[in-house]
Write a structure and sequence with these properties.
The structure is a homodimer.
Chain A (H helix, E strand, L loop, with lengths): L2 H15 L3 H10 L2 H9 L3 H10 L2 H10 L2 H10 L2 H9 L3 H9 L3 H10 L2 H11 L6 H4 L6 E3 L4 H11 L8 E5 L5 E6 H6 L6 H4 L7 E2 L4 H10 L4 E5 L5 E6 H19 L12 H27 L2 H6 L2 H29 L8 H29 L4 H31 L8 H23 L1 H4 L1
Parallel strand pairs in A: 1-2, 4-5
Antiparallel strand pairs in A: 2-3, 5-6
Helix pairs in contact in A: 1-3, 3-5, 5-7, 7-9, 8-10, 15-16, 17-22, 19-21, 19-22, 20-21, 21-22
Amino acid sequence: MQERNRILRVATENLLKKNDIKKVIVLLDKLHPADAAEIVSSLSEENQKRIFESWDVPHAADTLQEMDESEQVDIVELLSTPLVADIIEDMAADDVADLLGGLSKRDQERILTAMERKDAVEAMKLMAHKADTAGGLMTPEFIALTKGMAAQDSIELLRKKAPTAETIYYVFVVNKDNQLIGVMSLRDLIIAKPTERIENIMNPNVIFVDVNTDQEEVASVMSRYDLLALPVVDQEHHLLGIITIDDVVDVIEEEASEDIYRLGGVPREERLDIPISLSIRYRLPWMVFNLATAFLAAGVVSLFEKSIAKVVILAVFMPIVAGMGGNMGTQALTVVTRGIALGQLEFKKGLRVIAREIGIGSAIGFVTGVITAIIAYFIGANPYLGLVLFLAMIINLGIAGFSGAGIPIILRLLNQDPALGSGVIVTTFTDVFGFLSFLGLATLLIKLLI
Amino acid sequence: MQERNRILRVATENLLKKNDIKKVIVLLDKLHPADAAEIVSSLSEENQKRIFESWDVPHAADTLQEMDESEQVDIVELLSTPLVADIIEDMAADDVADLLGGLSKRDQERILTAMERKDAVEAMKLMAHKADTAGGLMTPEFIALTKGMAAQDSIELLRKKAPTAETIYYVFVVNKDNQLIGVMSLRDLIIAKPTERIENIMNPNVIFVDVNTDQEEVASVMSRYDLLALPVVDQEHHLLGIITIDDVVDVIEEEASEDIYRLGGVPREERLDIPISLSIRYRLPWMVFNLATAFLAAGVVSLFEKSIAKVVILAVFMPIVAGMGGNMGTQALTVVTRGIALGQLEFKKGLRVIAREIGIGSAIGFVTGVITAIIAYFIGANPYLGLVLFLAMIINLGIAGFSGAGIPIILRLLNQDPALGSGVIVTTFTDVFGFLSFLGLATLLIKLLI
């Protein structure tokens, strides 16, 4: 929380202690709804209830709209059904659908029943789309002009309708069957001659997405073409809604968090502010899976117990080979996964990228292998151990490059998220092959090492 | 590259083989500049030169503007100075500054000298700001209204000036000293009564940033308040420029990539499409540093050579304790680093977060420790080895939580990037303490283990 909001929060709490709800509301109404939302979210449930019950509906709706979905759900559960219905009717349709989607079936029903029929039907239509598709992001509150209108009449129409439409920075043009045929910016409209016809001003090369498009693709289209709003159509090219850039900014941050979490092996539900018991429950299955892979690596070591018994120093150098492989594999994995996420990696180049990472890995294995062998020699190890370290390092770092690049590419070909679980698979590879190459070579040359 | 662009690229290459530059240009002019840029970037240098030399300046400028900075630099180096100056004068001022910033001092000078004086001065002013600050992102091409104007006159002014200003979706209002005093959207303006004065329509609570604000902060303000444009002021509150949302979308993706790369231990310059020799050179120093930390962990193991010689199975279980610590540390690191990046983590809560992760680590260490001990027992290991494994697991996973949460928080307190190098420091911690706790406990109980 920023310093200013922290001060305002203390002021709010003092007013609440004095039961001066009116002054609290005057204070909150002066703030940007995003700030009001942050302050209200930090208050006790009882105080949240008192504020929302005395608030005027438009301000309450603006503030609720700015909260996280989980905070919205908490507040909705505090309030009476008619009050929730009133507030929700004042929110943007796409936000309503997201909020209702987070509630239990029973809560959804009681609120939808209390809402005006038209708003309820609209919300239900939007809820039918998956949250992470274009349909789940779009709002049906937009203004479409029909192609025969004149510029001046269009501006008049916008003047009348604008207050209810989420955005009018782009104006979309449809034919009489409501099929999308063009786009223009509000700027094009106001700089046009007043009598000019819309069809002569509009750009017919309008960029759009299908209602089932994945949100990652939506974000990439809007970012590629620098769009503020993107129209969404069904299979017959009917205009269903628009997606605005502010929702896409959230999507980009969400997708980046998802990738970072997946690479770090963290479940997506994890957050710093959830109870510790929940964090343990979320992370435990993953750590048990990690344990299974760790036993796999240990199993490889156990194959060479006899060699280690003869040459104990092998146990000292063993973690170096495996650890360097893990680092190299993580580097390759990071570069390739990010390349896939940003669309820099074409499918056909997959094999070339894998070959590239094998090359980088072997080259780095060569250099660090030489360094390791020299250090081993100077701390008094058998010179042949240096040779084994050198060779194992080249092999394992080459394999690290192969698995770090290959695993996300294969997951992608199988239509899975390339970041999902890749980290642990790669380090299992580098552990297993690190121990196998180092201890295996040592066993082959065991007579020279004793 | 998308399928459609791949087909268009082949068509372009065929036309170039027939030397039909005119048709190539007709084809490119029909595309969105982002698509034209992708196709042109994929052609040979010779063909790029031919196209740009025959292109009309506005289309060439639109296309160049959509390219990556490195692609822009490559093209600029192909063309004659007067042509480059012409094209650049047609680009948005902030893009010009970014492009020139990527050139050598000599190239900058020859191009600036060839540009019109006014444009050159403007570009130099912008280049004086650091690229990753508000000043580096802003464009000076905006329209500011003065407070006394009427709505109708303002629209007239916009009609005249709009074609040269980068965005007019928000209109900023200044006083006679050019100090920022308000904001309104184009939408507010066109729905206002024509005779209404600007000062009565505008919102005086305008959100702005100082010219030296870091780009991460700029992105967070724009995303928090859902802004399409953000005004930039100097210390005396003079309006210097505006930042548009499309530039911020790029910043968000850039910052996410940076965090992902840092967590993965990948140098920021690394990309899939650079020469392999360059990749090796970028990654090698980091891997040599990793090698040093690996030797540190190996040094710990060497302290216990005698114990391993007596009980060889220690070498088998050793990687399990260290590896599980590494996984747990990476999870904690990922959650805390992302929390810091998204502003979810307040400074004062730092200690609580560290305690939280120690708790999660120990709890998961308890469960996986029990599982490990049971498995060890069933594969015939000494029961006391199970006890050692169990205790070492709790200790090391607790330490993993401590270092995974503590290291980024400490880096942040030192004003360093919390993701920078954290990964390797955390795994060094978990390796060292993993070996130390497991082999140390085993050495204490060595008589029971033989």
